[in-house]
Amino acid sequence: MNSRYSKLLIFLIAGLCVFWVSACATGDKKEDDYLKNHKTLSKRIKLFNQEFETRSNIASDKMVKDDHREEFLKYIDDIHLNILFNKSTIISIKYYQDGLPISQNSRFPKENFNKAVLSIKYEIVVHPSSKLKTLFVKQPWELLEIDGKKKWVVIPEMDVFLNKKK
What we know:
Helices cover 46% and strands 30% of the residues. The chain is built from three helices and five strands. It has one domain: NTF2-like, domain 1 (Nuclear Transport Factor 2, Chain: A, Roll). The longest helix is centred in the N-terminal third of the chain and has 52 residues, at 2-53. It has helices at 2-53, 66-82, 158-164, and strands spanning 83-97, 100-101, 115-126, 132-146, 149-154. It is elongated and about 95 Å long. The protein is α+β, with helices and mostly antiparallel strands.
């Protein structure tokens, strides 16, 4: 009889352990989703801005939201001809889920988000001047479903750079 209770106790403890491990794994999945979301966005931001600032348009136009791509392509060459980017710094990033701001206590939010707005400080030289100018730009990014996949796209503020030429 004692052996029977021991086996039942071991079975219950093993069942609780399995339940606990599966509960922890479910929690990690949610955390993995928003961490993956943040890492993907960070890579896209870095690639887009690196190409934008170094006059390389290999993939940057493909990261622009469809309804802004024509304007981007129309003005990017003019910007590259007249503006030299000296330095850029991301000052802040605000995250949103369905238009509502997400509170954040660290570098990135602890929940999912589908929009991010960067505040970027640029140090630029506008041709033909050699004087360094400082420019502050908002750079919104949205997570959209494109061809059955979720992709981050940017809505660049081209007019801010075009107005600096004047």
